[in-house]
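Quick one before lunch.
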Amino acid sequence: MDKRPIGIFDSGVGGLTVVSEFLKILPAEEIIYFGDTARVPYGSKSKEIVTKYSTQIMNFLTEKNVKSVVIACNTVSSNSYAELAAKFELPIIEVVSAGANECVRTTKNNRVGVIGTERTIKSGAYEKYINEINPDISVYSKACPLFVPLAEEGWVNNSVSAITAEIYLQELIDKDIDALVLGCTHYPLLLNQINKVCGSVSVINPAQATALKMKSLLDEKQLCRSGNVAPAHSFFVSDNTGKFGKICNLVLPRKYDAKLVDIEEY
Ligand code: DGL
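Model of the D-glutamic acid complex:
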């Protein structure tokens, strides 16, 4: 039994799609979330900058005495996980391996698609994990950078998001894929539009598999927070608490307020 919170972080508010799965799968756990809304997007930045920013966030979360950290951001998971895992002693979980596993389990025809930020796609991390498990799977990848501002703007169900999804995804559908990994935390916000283009293709959000992985880790290390007292979650952002509130309403079962943090101090 360990009452300390779990830290979850992302480059912005997209990581709330991961928090949403954690609230369902680990309802007794307390969560401290950090979204780097001042410096989003990470997906167009260099690996060095992504590692520097995520190290500052890890410093902030470890100061909050978290028992474990979830790197909700695919861009950080695919570029900086090794550096963070080497630097910090607490258990850190990334989202890419869980998403890749789920994808391998799902595909029947061994042709899959992965979408993510430019930095995630450039890293080749999803292909690497998928082909380590099954080298016969063909992976078709595509960066979809415009999905991030659309999600942050809350433009998830209008004609702009519909046409953007069609333009980005049709070329993957034409490759005859039967599974598509949403390799970016913001993309589940556009799920309606993505599903419309994908038809019978299975769309995989790595968040659920990541929460299940954390559950196994907490069980195995006996770090679960049990008891009858409902956890009080905390949310922090580096800028624009208003935008946090807007996305929070779309993704989480109730409204939470976010506090501002000067992350450059960490
Ligand atoms: N949250 C990031 C991810 O999952 C995407 C947004 C960004 O570019 O920062 O990769």
